[in-house]
TrEMBL record:
InterPro entries: TatA/B/E (IPR003369), TatA/E (IPR006312). The keyword Transport applies. It is a single-pass membrane protein. This is Sec-independent protein translocase protein TatA. It comes from Alishewanella tabrizica. Residues 77-93 have a biased composition (Low complexity).
Amino acid sequence: MGFGGISIWNLLIILAIIVLLFGTKKLRGIGTDLGSAIKGFRNSIKDEDKDNDAVKQDEDFNTSPKSAQMVEHAKPQAEQPAAAAQTPSTPTTSDKDKV
């Protein structure tokens, strides 16, 4: 027994009928077209994976803590937020005196 009750002899008979119906040139052309289509599909998948890897590496570089620190150091001093320049949200004593 072969594939689901079909023996090797049955498959050979089916193959012989297909060759008689279509001819060897037509079958060769179909095989070539199918092979080139599969090859093109594989190449496009590989190209897409390479593009995705390149984009992911760029994102990883831009979001890594090391590069974030490098970006902070590269900013001019005026653009960096200063902790001392921020005012506290609680009122000062002079504000209490005014009320």
